[in-house]
Amino acid sequence: MSCFECCIKCLGGVPYASLVATILCFSGVALFCGCGHVALTGTVSILEQHFSTTASDHALLSEVIQLMQYVIYGIASFFFLYGIILLAEGFYTTSAVKELHGEFKTTACGRCISGMFVFLTYVLGVAWLGVFGFSAVPVFMFYNIWSTCEVIKSLQTNMTVPGDQICVDIRQYGIIPWNAVPGKACGPILENICNTNEFYMSYHLFIVACAGAGATVIALLIYMMATTYNYAVLKFKSREDCCTKF
């Protein structure tokens, strides 16, 4: 076998769908975890400085955010290992199905492991749909604040209605109690909040984190198709001549 034919044979055993899903999964999780961690820190800073000056009013929120940051570390570690395992399983299944290393052989244990990956990937896919929806909540909140600031700027430009009458009350979102002081910001104070680096960075980082969660959902959907197809081929290979690049 020539060097070129050997390379073609090796390329034929590459699970391209699993490879693309792994790259997309790593990128999405990295964006979600990295940007989400920094954005949460900025959010706490904004609340402490402008909406809840008493530490006891937002103590529970600070603990929850700190817990979420620890969870982010765990998510990043888990998906790094899980992505490598799924990619390795894709290489193994593709090599077995295409008979790159000898006659096709499969065992009940091998099919059971492939089936376990199918089930676990489906569960993770459903869970990440929830994470994706949850990550859109802070984007919605920051967008409301930003759009209110834009309204204040337009009113100041047109000289129609005083901007002091337009406020944003963070307490209505339920993240701080109703007795928090001041709890809301109006007019020029709100505009100054929107002009701070913490607000600008947190808003855009939450958007990127939401996009990263969406990319992870897409990656898990590709994993679902790949693992399901691999499991079906392993199960029915003995009955029909199938081949896969997944």
Task: Describe the SSE topology.
Blueprint lengths: L2 H10 L3 H36 L7 H39 L10 H51 L8 E3 L14 E3 H8 L2 H40 L10
Describe the overall structure.
This protein is mainly α and 246 residues long. It is 75% helix and 2% strand. The protein has helices spanning 3-12, 16-51, 59-97, 108-158, 187-194, 197-236; strands spanning 167-169, 184-186. The protein has a two-stranded antiparallel ribbon. It is elongated, with a radius of gyration of 25 Å. This is Glycoprotein M6B.
Rounded mean pLDDT is 82
Which residues sit in consecutive blocks of at least 5 with pLDDT less than 50? Answer: 240-246
**Helix run count:** 6
For the largest beta-sheet, the strand count, sense and barrel status come to: 2 strands, antiparallel
> Would you count the extended β strands for me?
2
Helical proportion, percent range: over 70%
* Lateral arrangement of strands in the main beta sheet: 1-2
Shape descriptor: elongated
Computed Rg? 25 Å
The oligomeric state of the chains shown is: single chain
> Distance between termini?
25 Å
Class from helix and strand fractions = mainly alpha
Strand content: under 5%
Order of helices and strands: HHHHEEHH
Notable traits:
mainly alpha; 246 residues; disordered C terminus; elongated
Q: What's the gist of this structure?
A:
This protein is mainly alpha-helical. 75% of the residues lie in helices and 2% in strands.
